[in-house]
Structure formats: structure tokens, C-alpha cells
Here is the input.
Amino acid sequence: MTDSSNNVPVQPLYPDAGTPVPLPRLYLDAPLPDRGRFGPWIYGNFVATLDGRIALAHPETGRLGVTASIGDARDWRLFQELAARADVLITSGRYLRDLRLGAAQDVLPLSSKPPFVDLAEWRVEHGYPRQPDVAVMSGSLDFQIPEALFRQGRRVTVLTGTAAGDEAVHRHERSGARVMRISAGGAVKGDDVARTLGDMGYRRAYSVTGPYVLHALMQAGALDALFLTQRHRIVGGEDYSTITAGPVLTPPADLQLQWLYLDAATETAPGQQFARFSLEYPPSSAHADP
Ligand SMILES: NC(=O)c1ccc[n+]([C@@H]2O[C@H](COP(=O)([O-])OP(=O)(O)OC[C@H]3O[C@@H](n4cnc5c(N)ncnc54)[C@H](OP(=O)(O)O)[C@@H]3O)[C@@H](O)[C@H]2O)c1
Here is the structure.
């Protein structure tokens, strides 16, 4: 699909089935909370096929990536609009490693490409810095922070565990990042991420990462909302990623549908649906209280 296809409207289905609405600004103008369960409102976003694939292994390198058979330009526009609403993006060590290998889809949003320049302008008009800040979740600290993030004036914070070695910590600090050991051990806990970002003054945090970070956030009850594009397509494959990975969630994460839009099929592309869910955590669950 080309970007001009953004002229095709989408059909609201839930909570009210109404007349078609334009795709651009669908997520940019939607009212969103600015307070979540533990501090900032934390939201994630995925595009998945009907068989649940969010990434497929490259046939030669074996590296996982979002293929053109999974994502499309219309979903990418909404992904960027959600980034425009954030104070801080949550990314991962894996993403920054992929970026160096050229396997990531783009530099971290907001994209500087022409179809998205309106988003940076929207931010400035609404009193935000042109680009959201960046928080990197990593146990290994085995990545390099792109210089471009600092040139864009973004504050970069690395969130890691107490097991992180001093040498790697100092390397990231020398590059201009702040490194915080926020949880005991190697991995960081989702509620520690949320509280830390809240203490830093952030009100909305957008997780642009994959299944492991989402798992950490949900396990701690720290994910407040999930935006999910489901492409009306099945791709199969033996080596793929899906929305979340990690131990069985106990209790499971239950979600409540907030809205649903149909993006109808065209002659050249399958249909897809754009959903927003809120996360419902039972008060009696093992999750820590806010
Ligand atoms: N279709 C979509 O919407 C979509 C969205 C996002 C990602 N993807 C794709 O999904 C694929 C898989 O992504 P991924 O498996 O790499 O998932 P990921 O969850 O983005 O990243 C995993 C990395 O995050 C860090 N991490 C995760 N949980 C952590 C924790 N609790 N504490 C500290 N660090 C933690 C680790 O970094 P260290 O190794 O540095 O410790 C780990 O390697 C990628 O190909 C990506 O492109 C698709």
C-alpha cells in the first residue's frame, strides 16, 4: 500500500458503529489518559496476523523482523501517531542491536520521513518536545545508543538490574545516557519501570518493544492499554514471534475492548482491524498495589 491510501476512511464498529472516518489523526486526536496504575499511563502496540505472528525469521539470516506480509503503511501511520502522544518511548536492548544490524523497521519514532512531519509539528503545538524521550530496558547492556537520539535532544535512560556490570554502565553514561539499576538481579520488573518513569515526571509511556518487554509489563500489572492491529491474513511459518513470551501469566491478563475500527480490504491489500483494549487486573491478584 502507498501512503496516498491514507485517504481511504476506516469504519467504526465499536462502541458505536458509525459513518466512516479518516485514518490520519485517528489516534492523534483520540482522548488518552495521562495517569496509569503505577504512575504514567503505559501503552503498547502490535500489528499481528490472524495466526498471531508479529515477526517472521529472515530466510537467510534467521533474524526476526516485521515483514511486509505483516505490517503495512496504514498501521505504520497509527504506530507513529501513538508515538506522538508519548512523553517517553520504552525500547529494548534487542531493538538497539537490530538497529545497528539494519534489521529494525525504522529509527525510533517519530520518523523524520515526509509523511510524518505533521506529527512533530503537532507535538510542538501541544507543548511537547519535538521527539519523545527514550527509556531502554536491558539486562545485558550489550548495545550502543545511536548518537542521533542525543542530536535530536532526547533524554535517554537505561533501565537495568542490580546485576549490571560497572564497565557497561559507565560506557553508556559516557555516551550521554543515564543508567538506573531499578530491580534486583538481571531483569527489570514492570512495576519498577512504571514507578521510575513516574518519578522522572513522565505521564505517558509507549512501549514500542516486543514480546518479552510486554510480558514483564503485564506480569507486574503495569501495562494499562494495548493497541492491536490484526491483519486479516494468515502467514504460517515455523520461526516467528508473537505478542508475548515468557512464563504463563498467573493470573492471565484480561483485556476490555475500548474501540474497534474496520479497515476494509482493497484490490491489493487484505483488510485489517484496529483495536484498543484496556487491561483489567483483579484487585485480589498477586500484582503489587499501586
Ligand atoms: N509486529 C509488531 O507490532 C512488533 C512489535 C514489536 C516488536 N516486533 C518484533 O518482534 C521481534 C522480537 O522482539 P524481541 O523478542 O527482541 O522482544 P523485545 O521484548 O522487544 O526485546 C527483548 C529484549 O528486551 C530486553 N528485555 C526484555 N525484558 C526485559 C526485562 N524484564 N528486563 C530487562 N531487559 C528486558 C532484553 O534486552 P537485553 O538482551 O539487552 O538484555 C531483551 O533482549 C522483533 O523482530 C521485533 O521486530 C514486532
About this structure: The two ends are 43 Å apart (CA to CA).
